[in-house]
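We emphasize that the prediction below concerns an isolated chain of 576 residues; any contacts that depend on oligomerization or on bound cofactors are therefore not represented. The input was used exactly as deposited, without trimming of termini.
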Amino acid sequence: MKKIMLGNEAVARGLYEAGVRLVSSYPGTPSTEITEFAAGYEEIYAEWAPNEKVAMEVAIGASIAGGRAFCAMKHVGLNVAADPFFIGSYIGVGGGLLIGVADDPGMFSSQNEQDSRHYAIAAKLPCLEPSDSAECLAFTKMAYDFSERFDTPVLLRLNTRISHSRSIVDTSERLEKELVDYNKDPSKRVMMPANAKGRHVVLEARFDEMRTYAESCPFNRIVENEGSKIGIITAGPSFNYAREVFGEKASYFKLGLLNPMPTEALKAFASRFETVYVIEELDDIIETHCKKIGIQCIGKELLPLCDEYSQELLRDKLLGEKTEFVSDETPIPGRPPVLCPGCPHRGMFYLFKKMGLYVSGDIGCYTLGALPPLGAMDTTLCMGASISALHGFNKIRPDYAKKSVAVIGDSTFFHSGMTGLVNTTYNKGISTVVILDNRITGMTGHQQNPTSGMTLKGEEFHDICIEDIVLAAGIAKENLRVIDPDNLIEGEQILREELAKEAPSVIIARKPCALLKSVKRLPARTVDVNKCVGCAACMKIGCPCISVVNKKAVVDQTLCVGCGLCKHMCRLGALI
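Result of the prediction step, given as a token string:
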């Protein structure tokens, strides 16, 4: 049956049709929807893990047990999961194992433009890259036979454009794959040095076999256009852009298997053309391989290493044709990202700025607290780094300990913040940590986490108490406080009390995300124009509902959720 599917949805369909039994992931844009769609199939057990390392270890365990398994993450999540990723390459599989990693060229929702193909090369794992939804489904299904044939995990490399675009796919029925027998084999699966040395030899021999397979594998294909003098070697979304720009003027070697890449097949293809272009987003991995095997080609000397590609970019860089956009319409003004109306994090960031604190930030929607007018964040590194980084900062500058905080969300705390807190208490740090507990994983679209009381499959579960974890990590009971982040007076008082202590402390700012369906929307606030003097004090919290028109504050009645934070800002009582 033909259907139009999102790339991520097509991957999930491929998991279903391939007979996958288990999916474990941590949400990360642009990969999140794969696991959400997979959870919709009753035949697949699906879960949100606390972080990507755990997710990959769960999937590896399921594979060892003989079931086909999958885990998904974004590119930076692969950094977190790198340890089991490399070990998985050594031990191989029982049931087939596919690891979906979505890169983010252009950094639409990420802190870097890391190219995950490097990981596949370093771990000597096969890497597949689809260029549309049809290939997302097909490659996913074929990957499991590939995995079991060569006794190897397989990396499925996606990116934002493929994950979040739609195209036509052909669906079919599920293959009920029998469990692969489990046999105890410590030499294969117990990675102490003596065994690992032997497995490295096996890995190298396996990769040599895959090199031979790459010469004629079904993942790669050639699109011939008779009489063309241009040959293009490409992969992923760049294949689509190239075809739109060059059309029948070129022939194409479209790589689907990016590691290992063929040698003789590429050389034979390139030898037929006067000009050969290599078109790939981010790093010059295909180009380097081509030049290494003697292919004269044009690539990154004309094309950028940064950002995602487009048809316009290829026309400009390769054909010298500038694309002119002519429109009679008024251009749409830019809209900078802001914390949502009623966001429970807004009040805390206002207090941080008001108090002039050094703020060690973390990854989440609260990272937007770095933007004006709040501007209340000094650093953001990676998931879970805020607590650890503040500990290091305060060890070097102890005078800052009483005027600095680490801020982290509830999901990120469980992801990788807990270990940073243990490090702080164990090493006698005196940092103050603020956990913004909005009861959901907000950044990636409201996925469940250990605080939400619900599993991915919608099953009720008693939420794991952050307070218990904090106390177990070594924080004294008297140094643990729970506050309402909208109560600015109490919030400022407690911040000052905890910062003054010669001990590590934790403040949990607890209020559910304003966008949760369970959160009741209150009547919108209004402005008493007779009291308002246009001082714009209410604008300091950066609420998108509030503006100043004709020297009077105005509240957008369609956006306001009635949180009341703005009331604390107006000394004249004009906001009611």
